[in-house]
């Protein structure tokens, strides 16, 4: 029997040891393979696939079937890395029964090891029910992209004392409900630090400063594959987009100038060498 991938225990162990967790998104098998070779701690199949891969302006349009499709693809590229899949908009908000069934599909059909849900107090009962069913859940507070219409844009959350206290309270509620970690997105560093100190479970930041127990970033941002806007909280480690474009330009030129394919790129069959002889 093949070994099971890393479990959520990795998160708890790293928190206790004071070691930070490195998490990236991935949406396909080749990227997942590369991330695992790089010794990444966990891969998130984010609903950000809607914007990064599918061309939407928000995460809202991505469907449950699309999340299963991309999670399946990523699962084929990993053998030991913990795989977390986002629950897309309206896959868990309408009813608890639907939510549990959808989360179960991400584990059973798509190969995820855990799911992630946005929200605090409103999802704590659901987190408790899912974890009771054996479904590991990661929380997500601060700027929750599925609520972008309500927020009026991708805005920093927790800037007022009232908002900061609400994030802290909701993080505690998620922990009490059984969440194994909480993503803190676009919150002030001071808020992220307070939440991290208050919780026994790890916090994973994105645009939340360096005080969190770990960091998650969109792999396309890290590799220079994002066209146009790059979040301030990200960093380009390699401009792969420029390399790919240059390579494709060279391919186009070689095809048009008849430099590709070269003779050695073809298949030669001696008896077919003379096309004029085919009809003789």
Give a structural overview.
The protein is of the alpha/beta class and 280 residues long. It folds into 2 domains: 9-239, TIM Barrel (Alpha-Beta Barrel), CATH 3.20.20.60; 243-277, no CATH class. It has helices at residues 9-17, 29-37, 49-52, 64-75, 96-108, 121-132, 148-151, 161-177, 189-198, 219-222, 240-256; strands at residues 21-25, 42-45, 82-86, 114-116, 137-142, 181-185, 203-206, 214-217. An 8-stranded parallel barrel has the order 1-2-3-4-5-6-7-8, surrounded by 7 helices. Helix 2 packs across helix 4 (64-75) and helix 8 (161-177) runs parallel beside helix 9 (189-198).
Number of helices: 11
Outline: elongated
The low-confidence parts are: none
Which CATH architecture of the largest domain? Alpha-Beta Barrel
Percent of residues in helical segments? 25-40%
Number of DSSP strand runs: 8
Distance between the termini: 60 Å
What structural category characterises the helix and strand content? alpha/beta
The helix/strand series, from N terminus to C terminus, equals HEHEHHEHEHEHHEHEEHH
Query: What does the radius of gyration come to?
Result: 23 Å
